[in-house]
Design a protein that fits this description.
By secondary structure, the protein is an all-beta fold. The chain has two domains: about 55 residues, no CATH class; about 130 residues. It is built from no helices and eleven strands. The strands form four sheets. It has a five-stranded antiparallel sheet, with no helix packed on it. A two-stranded antiparallel sheet has the order 1-2. The chain has a two-stranded antiparallel ribbon with strand order 3-4. A hairpin with a 6-residue loop joins strand 6 and strand 7. The protein starts with 11 loop residues before the first strand and ends with a strand.
Length: about 200
């Protein structure tokens, strides 16, 4: 099929029926790892390194929100899953209620997206409490499995994030810990609250 009349050697084009629209008019073929990116409407695309433009999806760290409702309490030593309505504005919270003196566990699975570079995973807990004082330690460990790997595999080294109780029913967001290295396609994560400090 002949290319669009405006194309020169090395052009990339997209076709609808028999007509083509030039996407990139050579001769620059780009280099390994670059993506063809346009910076806006009516702007000719060029080959760029991932992340060089806001329209290019960077391979690497992205955020996946996992709410408490997306986690399953362990059958053995699992927290209580509940819904709470706050008193003044009737905001509803879906929570996993971890016991202060006991180490309890909940788990969730993530099917990693194609853009994942099989690099490290970090976590940042979001928590609250109806009352109390002192500190809390949140932890996450994970195991990844690929095709034909046994799913009953041991978890990796846990990473922890420590925070201090501030105010009842306030949103607490402690800093993320150093990342545990993981690799694979399916990632099973286990989180728990350590005993009270």
């Amino acid at each position: 099929m002949a290319g669009p009349a405006t194309a020169t050697a090395g052009a990339l084009a997209v076709y609808g029926d028999t007509t083509g629209k030039v996407l990139h008019n050579g001769p620059d073929p780009g280099t390994a790892g670059q993506v063809l990116t346009s910076t806006g409407p009516n702007t000719a695309p060029t080959f760029q390194n991932p992340g060089a433009s806001s329209s290019a999806l960077t391979v690497g760290k992205h955020t996946l929100w996992i709410p408490a409702g997306g986690m399953a309490p362990n059958t053995t030593n699992g927290p209580l899953w509940t819904t709470t309505e706050l008193s003044t504005n009737k905001n509803r919270l879906k929570t996993l209620n971890f016991s202060a003196p006991t180490q309890q566990f909940a788990q969730f699975d993530i099917g990693m997206p194609p853009s994942w570079d099989e690099g490290t995973i970090t976590f940042q807990p979001l928590w609250t409490a109806a009352g109390g004082t002192g500190g809390v330690v949140w932890a996450l460990d994970a195991v990844s499995t690929s095709d034909s790997d046994p799913m009953d595999s041991s978890f990796g080294t846990e990473q922890t994030s420590t925070d201090t109780f501030l105010t009842a029913n306030a949103c607490h967001i402690p800093p993320p810990p150093p990342p545990p290295p993981r690799g694979g396609d399916r990632v099973n994560c286990r989180t728990h609250r350590g005993p009270c400090q």
